[in-house]
Amino acid sequence: WIQERNVNIIEWPAQSPDSNPIENLWQIIGQKVSAMKPKTKAELTAKIRETWARISKEQCVKLVNSMPERCRLVIKNKGWPIKY
Asked: How confident is the model over 16-44, as a mean pLDDT?
């Protein structure tokens, strides 16, 4: 079907963190929660939820809008991880 319709595809690792903005968001959350130094599992869960609730729409849009540049860098780097 793809060949019949001349669809261009990019060979890409299915689980590449460079191609998934949520990975950057998890890193941001992890850093913020870690800085709070939760002591119990319940406290950790609460801090993760608090931090998640504070993520702005603008921050998500910024991560999604970074995808064209990420793709360009990964292609330039021949599929190897990029520093982003």
From this structure: 90
**Whole-number Å distance between alpha carbons of 46 and 38:** 9
- pLDDT tens for 49-78 read 999 999 999 999 998 898 888 888 888 887
The 3-class SS string of the chain reads: CCCCCCCCCCCCCCCCHHHCHHHHHHHHHHHHHHHHCCCCHHHHHHHHHHHHHCCCHHHHHHHHHCHHHHHHHHHHCCCCCCCC
Q: What are phi and psi of 37, to 5 degrees?
A: 50, 60
In contact, 70 and 22? CB cutoff 8 Å: no
| Phi/psi of residue 23, nearest 5 degrees | -65, -40
pTM above 0.85?
no
